[in-house]
Amino acid sequence: MAYSKKLLDHYENPRNIGSLDKNDDGVGTGLVGAPACGDVMKLQIKVGEDGIIEDAKFKTFGCGSAIASSSLVTEWVKGKSIDDAAGIKNSEIAQHLALPPVKIHCSVLAEDAIKAAVSDYKVKQGVGEKKIKAAE
Amino acid sequence: MGKDTGEGGNGAAKPRWNKNSPLYLDYQATTPTDPRVVEAMAPYWTEKFGNPHSRNHHFGWEAEEAVEKARAQVASLIGANAKEIIFTSGATESNNLALKGIGLFYKEKKNHIITCLTEHKCVLDTCRHMEQDGFDVTYLPVRKSGLIDLRDLQAAFTESTSLVSIMGVNNEIGVIQPLKEIGALCRQRKIFFHTDCAQAIGKIPLDVEDMNIDLMSISGHKTYGPMGIGALYVRRRPRVRLVAMINGGGQERGMRSGTLPSPLCVGLGAACAIAEKEMGAEAERLRLLRDRFYEAITSRLTEVYLNGDLEHRIPGNLNFSFAFVEGEGLMMGVKELAVSSGSACTSASLEPSYVLKAIGVDVELAHTSLRIGFGRFTSKQDVDFAVDRIVGEVERLREISPLWEMAREGIDLKSIEWADH
Question: Which of B333, B367, B401 is nearest residue A38 as measured by Cβ atoms?
């Protein structure tokens, strides 16, 4: 299976690896997937007073497509409002990286990770529903 | 790069690989055809092209002589008589013929088969089909080592057991089943013993008399011979009878019709002859390489787990779980190496290896596994290169892994309620 140049670039030179302070009220954390399924993504966003995402970090356990998908979305969400970020569709991620059909679930997971991070941020700000599960 | 360094075992000439190819470390998937085997086969494509079953002229006789020599070479490697070797298209066909052939022949009196959970898919899938056709099949569990417990085997015997089918060497974890002990138990009970030795042939000493083996499946391409050829050893005394799966001109004592592919037969024979001559020294050479690999990986990385027993194992196989690093992601990182993973991120089911599951490896760890296979053309430099690449990539991917980070923070990953997806 041949992977696209964009995918390989994100896998070999992932952007924005790392962690933000999950106890900071301005940071939203999304942790999605499960070790038993072979994919876990942690995506964190740092949101400014104006509701714009200032920074994003990720860590991913998974195949190359999962790592590349999460790396890509950290680039995409920066500078976006939280609602715009939460509107990113998995199909856009899959298309950009030219994911093969068996890897579409990696882009779904990346979309879920953004939504989970935004949701966590909103809960901290007192505007969202509290999620009991670590991941959704 | 460690790609084309050194020479293979016993000074065997390496196949001419493209220098941009990755380093091949997947010898349980297939083995390159030994150049000496290719050389032996060559004339049988061209000037010695005859049909070995043609009885009326030189071309047929010449091909027949070559095929019979090959048959004797295969037989010699396992302590059999040449007449007991049936050529087939490969181990999958041999396994089908052994299981279905015996099963159907004795079905009226006995319809129970015993096999094991970690067999190759071609045995398991054949058994599933036979269950649909009314056979009873017992799938023995394996211990953490990957080996069956002989007490489980004894407990599984019934009055209607016709056949026990247990593989010689596992294709994923390389462990060697206790063939001699299994053979003795089967012989006592007058139950036929079949063993899939696709991964064992030429790797470990095999003797059908000493081990009381009644049927043995053999593959060409797992032992430096060509693809598309294999064999089934079928014991003559006491006689093993089976129903043919392929009917036709009655070749191979009526058990497998079809014109024999003489170049492929010659290749399998040559591969077996080389193995018989070089196996002892080659096993020792590979054991040193394996130990070097094992020591280096386990001393340079923490939280690495070997899957399957180390002692009862062919020297050319290692199967590690690199905790917190997903296997397919790791394979993509070590792209200079051709290895294989027990992870199954590409499969629709997301189910990792059933073999690792059977030996009790947690599904989380099964996703982090890598199978590394060495063989005749692997050198010490190759091993050092592979170790460096794997260690470097595991370290890099652990820095990216949220699970590694959580484990370092002392979070018990099992305490987290992960979502299904």
Answer: B367
Using the CB atoms, write b or e for B354-365: b if 16+ within 10 Å: bbbbbbebbbbb
**Does pTM surpass 0.90?**
yes
| CA distance, residue A28 to nearest chain B CA (Å) | 15
The predicted pLDDT at position B2 comes to 41
Residues of A whose CB is below 8 A from B348 = 102
In the residue annotation, A63 being an active-site residue is answered as no
What is the bridge-based pairing of β-strands B317-322 and B304-306?
antiparallel
The residue among B326, B362, B413 with the most chain A CBs within 10 A of its CB, best to mutate, is: B326
Residues of B (193-232) whose Cβ lies below 8 Å from A: none
Q: Low-confidence residues of chain B, pLDDT below 70?
A: 1-12, 343-350, 420-421
**Catalytic residue chosen out of the listed positions A34, A37, A98, A134:** A37
Please compute Rg for chain A using Cα positions.
14
The single-letter DSSP state of residue A3 is P
Q: Is the ipTM of this complex over 0.85?
A: yes
Question: Which residues, including other chains, have CB under 8 Å from residue B232's CB and lie 6 or more apart?
Answer: B85, B86, B88, B94, B97, B98, B215, B216, B217, B218, B255, B256
A19/B332 Cβ within 8 A: no
Whole-angstrom Cα distance, residue B377 to residue A13?
Answer: 33
Cβ count near A52 (within 10 Å):
14
